[in-house]
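Work Package 3 (structural annotation) set out to generate three-dimensional models for the target panel prioritized at the project kickoff. During this period the team completed the workflow that converts sequence records into discrete structure tokens, so that structures can be stored uniformly alongside our sequence database. As a representative example, we reproduce one entry of 227 residues exactly as it appears in the project archive.
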Amino acid sequence: MAGAADESILWSAVDAYITDHLLPPDAAREAALAAAEAAGLPAINVSPAQGRMLTILARLVRARRILEIGTLAGYSTLFLAEGLERDGRIVTLEIDPAHAAVARANFDRAGIADRVDLRLGPAIASLPKILEEGIGPFDMIFIDADKPSNPDYLAFALKLSRPGTLIVSDNVVRGGRVLEQDSTDRSVQGTRALFDALAADPSLLSTAIQTVGAKGYDGFALTLVGG
């Protein structure tokens, strides 16, 4: 166990090194984290380095429309907004009113409220409405909500995509527990079902990257629609 603890300390130290060297201080992002902590929100947001990866991915696909499933305090939304084209817009979905209130304040503080459409309610109920409104297709979709619903979120993401849409799914390694075929953890089973769905669709080009750092051992699945 001591070895695992030592690894965690090392991962966090390297994350701090990356952040210190490659991410200039940002008052809005730092305030967003402070507001989330003050409100007692769970510290399950992406790390700064992971957030910067979202920014880069959004810029690579030249995203004008981004869909985020799972807002929390809006920390990842701030990074996604940095990657938007000038006339771009983000639709982000959050089930918890308290989380949404913190996120809205963070968007106001960061000056991006006019570019973010935050929708309150269960994502599984919001997604059909977005589909009916015809505001897609989205250029990038970030899935980071309750993991048992991952297969459902993917199904809607595909309906809201176009050839070339990038879908990013967070927390797909789960400390290695994704290997546990007989797990009773619904988050593990939802993640495994996501992998099965990605593998079964020949129109998708998918991979996953394992990550270590301040957030522990986890990973992202990256999917290119029409790949």
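Residues 2-225 form a domain with the Rossmann fold fold (CATH 3.40.50.150).
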